[in-house]
Amino acid sequence: MSDVLSGKVALVTGGASGIGRATVGGLLKAGAAVAILDRDEAGIKEVAQQARAAGGNALPVPFDLTNLKAIPEVVERVLRDLGRIDILVNAAGVAGRGQPLLKMSEEDWDLIQTVNLKAPMLLMKHVAQHMVERGGGGRIVNISSSSAFRARQSPAAYASSKAAIVQLTRSAAAELAQYDINVNAVAPGFTITGMTRALGGEETFQRAVSSGPLENLFHRPSQPEDVAEAIVFLCLPGSRQITAQTIHTSAGAVIR
Fold it and tell me: What pLDDT, on the 0 to 100 scale, is given for residue 155?
C-alpha cells in the first residue's frame, strides 16, 4: 500500500469486474478509500472483502445505473458512510446487443445512452456539487473508447455514447476548473474483460488486434490493469495540471 491518496475517497462505478475492478485495486493501493458501485452485488462484496483482507477500506454499494432518479441518494449514501468524495471514476458501461443502425431498437439505444452517458453525467453533477461545497477540488475520470474515434464496423449506439462522453468531459472540465476539479477521460481499445471474453478465446483476441478494424500498433490486446494505470494516474497529485484531456490506452489503434 502507498499513502499518496491517503485520506481521499473514491467512487468507482462498474467496480465488480474488468476495468472498474482493476481501478478499484489501483486506487486502494494508492491509499484511497473506495466506494464500489455496481449492480453485481456478489461481485462488489467479493472485491470489498479482498480489499479489507489486504488492509484497504472498501465499501460495496449495490446499484443499477438505470435507476437514474436514485443517483442523488446513492451519492448521499457514500457521503454518509465515507464522509467525502474526492475522486469519481465512471467506469461502468454496456454495449447492448451490438445491433447495427438499420436494425437497432429504441430500447437498446436508450439503455446504452442511459448507462454510458446520462448516468455518468448525473453522477458528475451530484459529486461535483459536493466537491464545490466542501472546497479543495477533486478528480473526475470518465471512460470513453477507441470506438469514439474510428469509423468502423461498431455499434452506432455504443460508439456515439463514447464520443459524447469525450465532449462531456471537455465541457465539464472547462466549467469546473474554477473549483480546482480536474475532469479527464481514458479511451481504451480492445481490452480483455468479462464482456469481451464472451466473443472468443486468446487466439480470437490475437487475430482481432493483429488485423482488421481492431488492429493496434503493438498487435496485443489490453488487460484491465493497462487501462486502470492511466485512470489512477489521473487521480494522483502529479497529474494536477492535466484536465479536459482524453488519454488513449488503445496501443495506437486510433491512428489506423
Answer: 84
Could you count the other beta carbons within 10 Å of the beta carbon of residue 133?
A: 8
Q: Catalytic: which of 109, 149, 158, 205?
A: 158
Contact (CB, 8 A) for 84 and 9? yes
Angstrom distances, CA of residue 64 to CA of 44, 59, 61, 178, 220: 13, 16, 10, 32, 32
Locate 86 and state its grid cell: 474526492
pLDDT at 1: 57
Q: What angle do CA 142, 173, 21 make, to 5 degrees?
A: 20
102 burial (CB, 10 Å; 0-12 / 13-18 / 19+) is exposed
Longest dimension (CA), the chain: 51
Q: What is the pLDDT of residue 9?
A: 98
Beta-carbon count within 10 A of 167 CB: 13
Mean pLDDT, consecutive 10-residue stretches, the chain (256 aa), reads: 91 98 98 98 98 96 98 98 98 87 92 98 98 98 94 82 98 98 96 68 75 84 95 98 97 80
Q: What pLDDT was estimated at residue 201? A: 66
Assess whether 179 carries a catalytic annotation: no
Euclidean distance between CA atoms 6 and 56, whole angstroms: 11
Q: Which domains does the chain have, with CATH numbers?
A: 9-191+223-255 (3.40.50.720)
